[in-house]
Specification:
There is one protein chain. The protein contains twelve helices and no strands. It is mostly helical. α11 crosses α12.
């Protein structure tokens, strides 16, 4: 690593140092070194890092949704650090390293963008001024899916659903599963069909509850949520983003209710439901 880094935090000019990718890779190698590394980093493994990866991805999404662009370099760095972590594991086990990750990604993107790189190399990029013969977006999407299908076939995948990650948040995974099925024609012809399905699933929840069958009701709630994700997909909305926005809205309004109750010198559990509802309606009338 650079002399600036090795000199330690006491050097006056350290805060102005511009680190590069190689510095980060070397830092990770040192953190994992059995003799001089960090005890916490040394004991990590493939499985223990996964929850951190998911958390960092959500923190990136949160910063973007809040338009906190001053925080975004840090959050993206945390997410990149996860990739560096897995690459270090791979290097230690002589499976792959970070450079293999970069090579694999670049080769895949070149392969999937023949309309931009006709010969599959960076040097073969389309020259400027060729807008007239650019491939239409719909054609690009069809080609993209065809290439991904070919890649699945090479991995001996037996279903179009095989490479939908199991660890995705349930709403996101439901959307991906239904989107894959829709691509081969397994879909409603219009949004009215999806809405009818939601009503059907809601009726089945109500029927299960009327029969006091809690286990069946839970199953039907899952079906209802899956149908709602299909509605979001049909409307080209991301259900995770929709729900996160609703979570934020609920939190904002509930904090408003809390504030009003506290102004009265009371606790929430001391207020009757009608008063809470009145405060809630006032919260809804507040500008976002």
């Amino acid at each position: 690593m650079r002399e600036d880094l090795e000199a330690g935090a006491g050097r006056a000019g350290l805060s102005e140092t511009r680190f590069e990718l190689q510095d980060l890779l070397e830092l990770m190698a040192v953190l994992r070194d059995p003799q001089q590394g960090c005890p916490w980093d040394i004991k990590q493994d493939w499985d223990s890092i996964v929850p951190h990866t998911l958390e960092e991805a959500y923190e990136v999404a949160d910063a973007i949704e809040r338009r906190a662009f001053d925080e975004l370099p840090g959050e993206l760095g945390d997410l990149l650090f996860q990739v560096v972590y897995y690459s270090q594991f791979g290097a230690e086990e002589q499976r792959f390293d970070f450079h293999d990750v970069v090579h694999t990604l670049t080769a895949k993107m070149l392969r999937r963008h023949p309309h931009v790189f006709p010969q599959g190399t960076l040097e073969s990029r389309r020259p400027p001024g060729t807008d007239a013969d650019k491939v239409q977006e719909q054609q690009v999407n069809r080609r993209w899916e065809s290439l991904k299908a070919s890649e699945r076939a090479q991995r001996e995948a037996h279903s179009i659903l095989d490479d939908v990650p199991r660890n995705l948040p349930s709403l996101s995974r439901a959307t991906k599963l239904s989107k894959r099925a829709a691509r081969v024609g397994f879909d409603w012809p219009d949004v009215e069909g999806v809405i009818a399905k939601i009503r059907e699933e809601l009726a089945e929840v109500e029927e299960a509850l009327a029969e006091n069958d809690q286990e069946h009701a839970r199953e039907e709630i899952g079906d209802l949520l899956f149908a709602v994700t299909n509605l979001a997909r049909t409307l080209k909305a991301d259900p995770e983003q929709c729900l996160r926005a609703t979570n934020s809205k609920f939190e904002r309004r509930f904090r408003f209710v809390e504030a009003r109750v506290h102004e009265q010198g009371m606790a929430l559990n001391e207020i009757d439901l009608a008063t809470l509802e009145r405060h809630w309606q006032a919260a809804k009338a507040e500008p976002n």
